[in-house]
Each structure stands twice: as C-alpha cells, then as structure tokens.
Amino acid sequence: MKKLLEISLGVVTSVGGFLEVGSMATAAQAGAAFGFQLIWAVVLGTICIIFLVEMAGRFAAVSHHTIADGIRERFGFTAFLWPLVAILLVNFLVMSAEIGGVAIALELATGIGFQWWALPVAFLAWLLLWKGTFGFIEKGVSILGLVTLCFVVGAVMLKPDWRAVATGAVPTLPAHDAATYWFMAVSILGASISPYLFMFYSSGAIEDQWDESYLGANRAIAGLGMTFGGTISVSVLIVAALVLATNGIDQVDDYHQLPLMLIPIFGFWGFVLFVASLAIACFGAALEVGLQQAYLVAQGFGWTWGENQKPRDNPGFSSVYTLSTFLAAVPIALGLDPLRLTIFSMALTAASLPLSVVPFLFLLNDKRYVGEHRNGVISNAAVIFIIALGFVLAVVTIPLQIFGGT
Amino acid sequence: MDLLRDILDKQVVDREQVKIGKVDGLVAELRPGKPPRIVAIELGAITLARRLGARPGRWTAQLAARLGGKRHGEPHRIAWNKVQDIGVDIQFDIDVRETSIFAWQDWLRDHVIGRIPGA
User: Fold this and answer.
1) Which of A186, A210, A239, B96 could hold A61 in an S-S bridge, CB 3.0 to 4.6 Å?
2) Among the partner residues B9, B48, B116, nearest to A73 by beta-carbon distance
C-alpha cells in the first residue's frame, strides 16, 4: 500500500517534471502548423525519455551515485568538462525560458509587461529553494501541476478524429514547409528528451534515499509518469491543431496567441486554466532546473549536497542555485522574447544530447556500479538508438535552425 | 588494482562519510630499482587546473595563493596511508573539519550564505 502511494506520487511528480514551457510551446506550434502530423515526434521523444529516466533511477538506486557522479568518476575530469559545460549552458537557457514562461503567464493575467516579472519570479523560485525541502518542492509543484490535465479534458471535449490522431503517431513526410517541419520535430524531441529531467531524477532518487527495493517502483514511475506527461503534450498538440488552425493561426510566433487555445472549450475559464497551467508548469520546471545546476556542479566536484539540509551546511551547493536562478532571470528582464528563447533552447538541448546520453551506455553496463542490475538487450538497444538519434539531431539542428527556425 | 580506473576521479569521503571531493590527482614516489608507489592523493582546483595544462595550473595556483594566502597556493593532499576503504567511494581516516579542504566553503558560509536570512 505504501509503495502504491509512493508510485502514484512519483508518477504525479514526473508528470510535473515532463511538462514545461518547451513541451507546451513546441507542441502548440506543431499542432497549429501541421495538424496531427507531428504527434509521432512527441511519441518518439516520450519513449526515449522513459528509457533514460528508468536507467537514471536504476543507476542511482543501486549504486547510490547520480548520473553526474558517474560521468565524472568513470570518464575522468577532462572528459567530464564537456558535458558539464554543455549541460550548464543548456540548463541556463532552459531555465531562462521557464522563467520567461511564468513571466508571460503573469503578463497575460495582469497586463504588466513580462520583463518586469522576471526578477520577482526568480526571487520566489530562489526563496523556495532556499527554505524548502526536496519533498516539499517535488510534491508541491507536481500536485499543483495537475492543472495541466485541463488540456487532456479539452482535447477529449473537442472530439478529434481519433483515427487521424493515431495516423499522426506514424512519421510521414510533410506536404509543405519541409525545413520548418523538421525543425519542429527536432525541437519537440529536444523538449521531451531533456538532460535536466533524467539527471534531476537520479539526484531525486538519492534525496529520497532509494535502494534496490525501489527498482520496481522506479520502472513504474518512469513508464507511467512519462507516458502521462507525453499524453498531456499530445493533448496540447491536438487542441492547438483543432483550435488555433481553425481560427486562422497556423504559425505560433507569439505567446499571446496561445491562451486562445482553451477559450472555445471552456470560455473565460479556458483563459484562466491556460494561464495557470503555463505559470505552474514553467515555475515547477524552473525550480527543478535551478536545483539541477547545483546538483551537477556539486556532484561533479564531489562536494556535499542535498536540498534537505540548510543552506549554511552546503554553502557551495546553495551558492550555485542562487547564482543560476538570478542569472537565468537576466535575459528575460532585458526583454528577450521568451518564445524564441524557448524554441532555441529546445533545439540546443537536442544538439547537446550525445554528450549526456553516451555515458549511459557505459555506466549502465558497469558492474562496479550496477552489479547484476546491468542493462539488458532491450535497454542497451534503446540507448544505442537514442545515441544515434542524438548524433543526427546534433548535426541537423543548426542548419534547420537557420532554414526552418521561426 | 588499476590506479587510473579505480582511484582517480572517485568520490572521497572522510571517516564520517562526509563527501569532501573527488580524487583530483595522484602523487607517486619514484624509487630506484623498484616500481613507483602512491604516497598521497590530491584534491582541489589547482590539481584540476594542472590536468588541463601547465599554464592553467600555474594561474590557478597564483590565484588561490592571492585569495587564500600562501597555504592555499599548493593543492590539498591526503596521505595514502590514511586510506580506510576502497569501493565505489574511497574513504580516508581523516576528519574534513581538521583540514583546510573546505576553507572556501567556510568562507562562503561566514561571508555570504550565512548572512542571508533563513540560511
């Protein structure tokens, strides 16, 4: 019974981690521009992240080390520097985009320009990291994050042609704007397969003191949680395809177009639900990315870390999240367009994937860390596939950004 | 034992299981007619910078000496004979509070983090 409760909480938590500004924005753009045709990208991204999250959790539960620990220890300092710098940079952009998402939601709610909200939002995020415990942040954010289920309700109420939805889950070639199509596919994959997600998950497993008895729960949480997250993303795409496109918006280039999505379904409350979903999903993600920056640095250099201790007990750790939170607010406070930043950072995430995914192949097959719980044939095949996908994404992202970016 | 595989870059903990860093460098003693012997491990930014090259190493050492005084111009060393346990983590029979390894964290606590309300 206790395990069941833990699994359901874990599932809710991982839904909270999955849905953030990137998955919402890319799914909405894709739906508006290409109807259901890009659903396959969400499905593919979700399958990939299920495997990576399961492995990250298994690695942590068995070895009591996080993925970041593992990369440093297994590959040495000079090799670790590359993923360290790449992930810190990508996380910085993603966190900035998340703060931008909250700021846009507050602008929609109040009419006060988004750049004025960047610093207050960063301050609130920092305050929660400073005073909160890991469980408080993890559970509080994810329970509030259930508001994003309104997209699923909305998608069902719109009565889409489910056969057309299922057809969209199979990759097809675009009839128009090929470069834009592929750029959106890349951004969706980047938004779904986020390094911060699986690295955060492995740190969370240590914070929650997982051991080998959690391996079953880990599998259930990874599978169900990410599937639910993916379902919400697909719902955003469906709603965007049915509402935005029929209202003449086939190119989402401004966040102000998005609240329209839920209004035909829920009326005025649709606007409220959209604003709440955007604000909560992005704020939760901002907290997680901020923590992940501190986890990454502390684990990479072997310092003590933990969100459950007071800041004064881990000065190095708490300095890193303090600095990253306020630095990430700067681009938004300077007026950088949050939507462009979001799409750019999702594409860059996709391009950085090989650096963070290649280590999985070695770490999850290393007996000294995972003993008998090494990867089986299926998991290894999945990692090799994701690595190959990562290399393809890394090569095509920049050219697509130039020709197909918005 | 393969030193580079099993020791270098592994997590170092003290006797209280406090995480004090990773094995950033190894110090070996060359003995005439006999194989070299590990005498200590090194931790800290200077050692890490030296792994990137001689010049970054020199700069970091100078910077550390300027910021923290002469005793910080050299990397932290822990004698190999203090080693207690070699597993996925490497445990040494020391107490990190009696070393200067966390001096920068203490400085941060006293001058920055500790001054912010709620720390």
Assistant:
1) A210
2) B9
